Fold these 2 entries.
Entry 1:
Amino acid sequence: MSFGIIAAVSREGIIGLDGGIPWHYSSDLKRFKRVTMGSTLIMGRLTWESLPRKPLPGRRNIVISSQDIEGVECFRSIEAALAAVSGDVWFIGGARIFAEAMRYADVIDLAFVPDSIRASGAVFFPDIDASVWEAGARESDPEDPRLVRCIYRKKKGISDE
Ligand SMILES: NC(=O)c1ccc[n+]([C@@H]2O[C@H](COP(=O)([O-])OP(=O)(O)OC[C@H]3O[C@@H](n4cnc5c(N)ncnc54)[C@H](OP(=O)(O)O)[C@@H]3O)[C@@H](O)[C@H]2O)c1
């Protein structure tokens, strides 16, 4: 059982704008699908609402929300969701989910897109604490060199409590 965070960020560290993602890179979407297939996805309500309102196929979709939402499994908190799952888990956003998931995750799979987003109301990826996370090598996406990927791993001796 492993817990990971997966996201794509702009040059400014932005993950979302106006309820969506203000870029489109098909190689990143393909990789997201490949990496997360077969696992459990945990997302916030607004991220769920940014999808086509049906669960992403081949994965257990869980939404964290104070309300029940028709058509998808919901929990009131990440903790409650984690108590009900087995196997690999990917936290897929948004910002509050990412921030809270930092304590549970062992890995952060981050794609850096070349876009520069300057807009008020944008949603940011939370700070990555360098005392907790070790950054791996930055590598270009083999299918689309405009994208750079970095895997962060939790340093040894850092527990989730
Ligand atoms: N670039 C990327 O990789 C990426 C990935 C995912 C999403 N996004 C973008 O990010 C934006 C959405 O992110 P967001 O941060 O605004 O919203 P979000 O985290 O997706 O959803 C926020 C809502 O989720 C629930 N929630 C979240 N964390 C919770 C917690 N710890 N405990 C209880 N409830 C919790 C609450 O729902 P209730 O109000 O119902 O209680 C909260 O209002 C969109 O623009 C989306 O497209 C980007």
Entry 2:
Amino acid sequence: MKEILVLCPHGVDGGLLSKAYALSEGNLRVLVLEGEEQTAEGYGAKYIHTIKTTPPDEAAFAGWLAEKIQSWGSTIVLAPATIAMRNIMPMLAWKLNAGLTADCTALDMAGEDLLQTRPAFGNSLMASIRSLSTIQMATVRPGTFRPVEQKANEPEIIPESGPAETGKVRELSFTEFAGGKPLSQADVIIAGGMGVGSKEGFEKLAKLASHLGAGLAASRSAVDAGYAPFRCQVGVTGVTVCPRLYIAVGISGAVQHLAGMSGSEKVIAINSDPKAPIFGYADYGYVGDWETIIDRLLHLEEETL
Ligand SMILES: Cc1cc2nc3c(=O)[nH]c(=O)nc-3n(C[C@H](O)[C@H](O)[C@H](O)COP(=O)(O)OP(=O)(O)OC[C@H]3O[C@@H](n4cnc5c(N)ncnc54)[C@H](O)[C@@H]3O)c2cc1C
């Protein structure tokens, strides 16, 4: 099986490494920051290239990566679709004359070729894309694949010098996001939709989420209605998540929403309409008013505190 190279210069994406490990049958090469070798090793990487810091000049970094990739002979190159990698990967693709599919929601192999699936035509259908170039590249939304650790492989660790400082771009300051753990890393998610009906309703969901140590998510319609902030939006135009448990409250189950949460291990749907499409995807369903059951769960939680 072909080797797959995964670029994680802004932090290891365990889900993407796990998928690449499975697709390449263990033939995995990664680039990470110095200090993250052990994490990469935990996902079965054979070759781990390290750089001391992420170069601030993204164009220079793309040029350096292109030379390295040619010397490593990598023909499948993946990266998480972070803001920085969304900038770097197109420049890299241009330098390598490679086809690049952005924001994939699924990856597979068709013989030696990478099959890249992503929403297309206004998110109304899922397209499976095969690049005809020698090098095939894709970015994948963080949270798309669940991390699966592998037994240690005794990888070869190769420190790299990184590109020379160009002086054209300087990092002036760095502020950590204050919003806590990203939704894409939550183990349990409680998501509300239009059926929740108000901002106050979402406050109830947030209370239950905080009792359970869960993340709070929302459908796009609920975000548009002002019930929850945009960072909670799950789906093709929001974040992609793959928790162990996804509780969908008053969400109908539109295809654009499902695209962001269909990787969830178990789904519980709470909806007053027994014909709501979400029940077709749920492992467990409750037909009825969301508030009745959420109030009951909150009451049970408070009794046990
Ligand atoms: C280009 C494009 C991109 C999009 N991107 C996204 C995206 O990223 N994410 C996303 O979520 N959507 C997205 N959408 C919108 C999507 O098509 C749906 O409109 C949206 O997901 C519906 O949200 P909802 O399920 O909360 O609302 P609705 O479809 O209105 O469903 C509300 C549900 O609540 C139930 N309900 C009502 N009252 C109660 C009650 N008291 N108790 C229990 N259940 C109740 C109803 O039975 C219903 O099933 C996109 C649309 C387009 C065209």
